[in-house]
Amino acid sequence: MLRGIGDDHLRVLAECFLIDESLMDKFTRAPAAIKNHHAYHGGLLEHVVSLMDLCAVVAPQYPEIDADLLALGAFLHDIGKIDELTYDRELAYSDAGQLIGHLIIGVELLEQKIRESEALSGEPFPEELRLQLKHMILSHHGQYEFGSPKLPMTIEAMVLHFLDNMDAKIHAFSQLIATDINADSNWTAYQPNLGRKIYKRLATSGDKDAL
């Protein structure tokens, strides 16, 4: 998906991430979180691929969206989690994760790779693209109370936030349903972090026959 990006500057930047074997090794092993969604080894990769698939579906519906920018923003939005979290064994926060967090770590990684892309291409990276990518990383949580230092202020940042939130929430609901202790009930146990139970809609004989 990244190597199909049309914009030359964004494609070279993406390549600088992809050819970094150490970074990509961590990217494929890292969880997306300690709890809530994709909280297991490889969860970050699963979440990002799912999000990029969603972006590829949504972008063609709205000509005003820069599909290349959205695709790379989706890839980069949680890149800082490769160093925010530790995951060689149990999942935990690193010192950098506790002190700085994945948004700042992500921006730092982006700056490093932008410098590498400039050396590789022999051209300066456009400042507008630099600012927009940074903004997408910093604003993707969508609200100040969710740890976002900036609210989404571009179309791509807004789309990224909503699709990221949707993918995370659907996965979290699915996991809660799959692991619920109330096996014979249409409802999960009460989820304090959500403030609700979740309706499971257990399969009936009619549902099974339809399959």
* Physical arrangement of strands within the biggest beta sheet: 1-2
Number of strands: 2
The profile of the biggest β sheet is: 2 strands, antiparallel
Strand content: under 5%
| Class of secondary structure makeup | mainly alpha
Question: Per CATH, which architecture of the largest domain?
Answer: Orthogonal Bundle
Radius of gyration: 19 Å
Whole-number tally of structural domains? 2
Average predicted local confidence, pLDDT = 93
Total helical segments: 10
Classify the fold: give the CATH topology of the largest domain.
Hypothetical protein af1432
Instruction: Give the % helix.
Output: 55-70%
Anisotropy-based shape:
globular
Task: Measure the end-to-end span.
Answer: 33 Å
The secondary-structure element order is HHHHHEEHHHHH
What descriptors fit this protein?
10 helices; two-stranded antiparallel sheet; 211 residues; 2 domains
Characterization of the model:
This protein is an all-alpha fold and 211 residues long. The protein has 2 domains: 2-179, Hypothetical protein af1432; 182-211, no CATH class. 56% of the residues lie in helices and 2% in strands. The chain contains 10 helices and 2 strands; from the N terminus they run H-H-H-H-H-E-E-H-H-H-H-H. It has a two-stranded antiparallel sheet with strand order 1-2. A hairpin with a 5-residue loop joins strand 1 and strand 2. Helix 1 (8-18) packs across helix 7, helix 4 (67-76) crosses helix 9 and helix 7 (102-121) packs antiparallel against helix 8. The model is unreliable at 204-211 (pLDDT under 50).
